[in-house]
Every structure is written in structure tokens, then in C-alpha cells.
Write a structure and sequence with these properties.
The complex is a heterodimer of chains A (105) and B (302). Chain A is mainly beta. Chain A has a single domain (20-104), classed as Immunoglobulin-like (Sandwich), CATH 2.60.40. Helices cover 12% and strands 38% of the residues of chain A. Chain A is built from one helix and eight strands; from the N terminus they run H-E-E-E-E-E-E-E-E. In chain B, the strands form two sheets. Chain B has a six-stranded mixed beta sheet. Chain B starts with a helix and ends in a 14-residue tail after the last strand. The chains are: A mainly beta (105), B alpha/beta (302). The A-B interface holds A 32-33, 54-57, 59, 61, 65, 68, 70-71, 73-74, 91, 93-99 and B 58-60, 93-95, 121-122, 124-127, 164-166, 168-169, 207-209, 265-269.
Chain lengths: 105, 302
């Protein structure tokens, strides 16, 4: 395999499972057992992308059950598109002390 | 046994070593397996294994399969095998089917006749715990909580990782609490009781959620019994409390240690020098005494 092809193959492997961010997306980082930001206002139709930077897995689980990520290991991402207005609280189902809110206008 | 010797007994033990619980006058007491065992020690009754976290592969222990295998080998090499084993949860790290498959395969090597498993929060990240209950749900009709009697002791499996409330602590939920009341009502106070669940059933450190919201209600249901042992995992280190006739005890993990309460940003894997790791992993063994029948219920640890 030539080196360019090899690099391309690596790129494909390394991006597998990761959400590719669009310009309209907003991101929430998970670090040191906190969501950052913990409160966020977005417009309907916005996609939120969460990325876990901790060595400990975390989840994004809405209190009302509307969305729920699998367990995200370090550097894993999860995305959800909010199509209707409302106040959406979510927690980490592994560390329920971790709580945050997204308000959709 | 004095408090001092109990504390000494709970110091670091290696993989495959652990804390033995003997039933002395119907109440469990602990001593270090590395020390000389009492002459009337009796036979091992059950093993507690916890927090195997199959699927974890980070720096704190890149080989959780290896450390679990070493633990199982050490248990299997004991001259008297325990009759059965309790797993107090976090069988897997990410609730993946492949992790459960690997864990089931490894745990099947334990030379025990039965394995009783309660879920940890890492086992039910899909919400309803479909993968967990597909494998371990039979004893409880997939509710997770159930009870059984063995060797005169009443065992109660509880699930406190699926009904989190705003306080961020473990929770049983109303249905399970009502079931627990019913399960204990009318039961003789002289029957020893062992309760096992993943998260500590008493509050060890509230800011990290190391406790259970209904802990006081649970303890109040158990206080009338002469001998109660509450076995938990979750915090990957031994913490013990004695309150009246109730001994609360958390087990080590076979996978990786966690920090002392409040040390650092949160309860994540603790990286220690490789030489120190085996001394921070282990299991717990319970032993029924020969001279002291389980039904003898008069003495306490105090």
C-alpha cells in the first residue's frame, strides 16, 4: 500500500463512529464530570453534538426519555437534533450528579 | 474481634486475596486471609466479586480480562470452594453485548454452583438493561431485585442504578421499596440477612453520588434483625461501617481502583504504579462458622 492510500485508510478508520460536525451544529464537551456548557439556548432544528473527553464513560439521557446516548467512551460523540421547542433536561445515567439543560426556542 | 484488628484486617490485600467474613454468633466478622485463619473458621459460604468492568482498556488497567482471570484462578485454587457467588455489578464497562459475552465466558470458569448478579449503572446504559437482563434476569423475572435463602441466611438482591432521582444518589424506587418491606415483613429477626446491591446503600460521599437516597428507609427495615450484612461495590475500594447489628461493606473491583472520596474531579479510574495495582484489586469471601450456627443471633460486632 502506498503511503497516501495508507494515510487515507487511517483517516477513514479514525473517523468511524464520530459525528462529522456541520456548520449549524453546536457542541457540548464533557470533561471532569461536567457538561460544558451546562445550560444552552438553541433554535429549533439545531443539532447538538456531545463529545466525552473524560477517561470515564458518560451518557446523555433526557429526563423525559426523548433521547438517550449509548455509553460514550473517551473521545466518543453523540448527536441529537432538537426539532421542537421546549426545555430539555438531561443527566449522565452513569453519574446522575451530572445534569444539564437545553432550551429550544 | 476488636475494631483495631478489624481495621488491620481490611488493609490492602492482593489479587486473589481478600477479606473473609466468618459468622460468629450469627454476625459476620472480618479478618485478613493473609493472616492465620482461626481454627474454627468453617467453610467458605459465598464469594463476592464486583466491578469487573469488562471492556475497560485505559491506563488504569489495560488488561481487565487478565486481572479477572487471576482472581478466578485464585478463588478456584482455594481448598474449599464457596457454594455460590454474588456479583455486585458493573460486570461490563459500556453495556455492550460483546462485553457481556466475554464477561459471561470468564465468570463461567468460577467453580461455583450459582452466580447471582445485580446490575451496576455501567451495565444498563441502554436504559431498560436489555443486554443485562437477557443474561442475568431469570432469577428476578427481569426486575433485578429478588431474594433467596441459602444455608439459613436470607439473601436480598437490590437494584439501585435504574431509578435515579434529582439528588444524584442511587435509588430503589417505590415498587422495589414496597417489595422489600413485604419481603422482610413477618420474617424472624433471628435469621441472618445479607443484602447486596451495586451502589452503597448508605451515604459514603454525597457529592459523587456514593449513596442511596432511600438508605435510611432501608436501614430502618433491617434494624430489627440480629445480623445484617450489606454488601456493595461501585466505589472500587473497601469502606466499612458498623451500625448496631448492621455491617455495611463495599468490595474492591477486579478491574481498577478509584480515588478516595472527594480526591479529584470525580470518581473515575485511578492510575497507580503497576506494582501497586494488584494490591488494590480483589474479592470478598463469606464463610459460615462451624461452632456458631447461623441461627445464633445474640452477638454483634460492637
Amino acid at each position: 500500500m502506498n503511503s497516501k492510500l495508507f494515510a487515507f485508510a487511517l483517516l477513514i478508520i479514525s473517523s468511524a463512529g464520530l459525528h462529522s460536525a456541520d456548520a449549524g451544529d453546536v457542541s457540548v464537551l464533557i470533561k471532569n464530570f461536567d457538561y460544558s456548557p451546562m445550560e444552552m439556548n438553541i433554535a429549533a432544528g439545531t443539532t447538538v453534538v456531545w463529545k466525552n473527553l473524560d477517561g470515564e464513560p458518560h451518557t446523555i439521557a433526557s429526563v423525559d426519555g426523548m433521547f438517550r446516548s449509548p455509553a460514550l467512551d473517551q473521545n466518543d460523540s453523540y448527536s441529537f437534533t432538537f426539532n421542537r421547542p421546549g426545555v430539555f433536561k438531561y443527566i449522565c445515567s452513569i453519574h446522575p450528579k451530572m445534569r444539564a439543560t437545553i432550551t429550544v426556542k | 474481634m476488636t475494631d483495631t484488628s478489624r481495621r488491620d484486617a481490611l488493609k490492602c490485600l492482593g489479587v486473589g486475596a481478600g477479606t473473609l467474613f466468618t459468622l460468629s454468633g450469627g454476625v459476620f466478622s472480618a479478618f485478613d486471609m493473609a493472616e492465620a485463619a482461626p481454627a474454627d473458621m468453617g467453610v467458605p459460604l459465598f464469594l463476592q466479586i464486583s466491578d469487573t468492568h469488562i471492556g475497560f482498556n485505559k491506563e488504569a488497567n489495560p488488561d481487565v480480562i487478565g486481572t479477572l482471570n487471576r482472581t478466578i484462578d485464585a478463588v478456584n485454587a482455594m481448598p474449599h470452594a464457596p457454594a455460590f457467588a454474588l456479583h455486585t455489578g458493573d460486570v461490563t464497562h459500556l453495556s455492550k453485548a460483546s462485553e457481556f459475552d466475554t464477561a459471561s465466558q470468564l465468570l463461567s470458569r468460577l467453580k461455583v454452583s450459582e452466580l447471582h448478579v445485580v446490575p451496576g449503572e455501567h451495565d444498563v446504559t441502554d436504559g431498560p438493561g436489555a443486554e443485562f437482563f437477557a443474561r442475568f434476569g431469570q432469577a428476578s423475572a427481569s426486575k433485578g431485585y429478588y431474594s433467596f435463602d441459602a444455608h439459613g441466611v436470607h439473601f436480598i438482591a437490590l437494584v439501585n442504578v435504574m431509578n435515579f432521582k434529582n439528588n444524584g444518589l442511587g435509588a430503589l424506587g417505590e415498587d422495589q421499596l414496597a417489595w422489600l418491606k413485604d419481603d422482610l415483613s413477618g420474617r424472624s429477626a433471628s435469621q441472618p440477612v445479607v443484602v447486596f446491591a451495586h451502589m452503597p446503600l448508605w451515604t459514603i460521599y454525597e457529592p459523587w453520588g456514593w449513596g442511596t437516597g432511600e438508605g435510611e428507609e432501608i436501614a430502618s427495615l433491617l434494624r430489627r434483625f440480629g445480623s445484617v450484612t450489606v454488601l456493595n461495590g461501585h466505589i472500587h475500594q473497601i469502606v466499612q461501617k458498623v451500625e448496631g447489628n448492621i455491617l455495611f461493606h463495599t468490595a474492591r473491583s477486579t478491574a481498577f481502583p478509584q480515588p478516595l472520596a472527594g480526591d479529584g474531579p470525580g470518581p473515575g479510574p485511578l492510575v497507580v504504579p503497576p506494582a501497586q495495582l494488584p494490591g488494590m484489586l480483589g474479592v470478598t469471601m463469606a464463610v459460615s462458622g462451624r461452632k456458631h450456627r447461623l441461627s445464633l443471633n445474640d452477638t454483634t460486632l460492637a
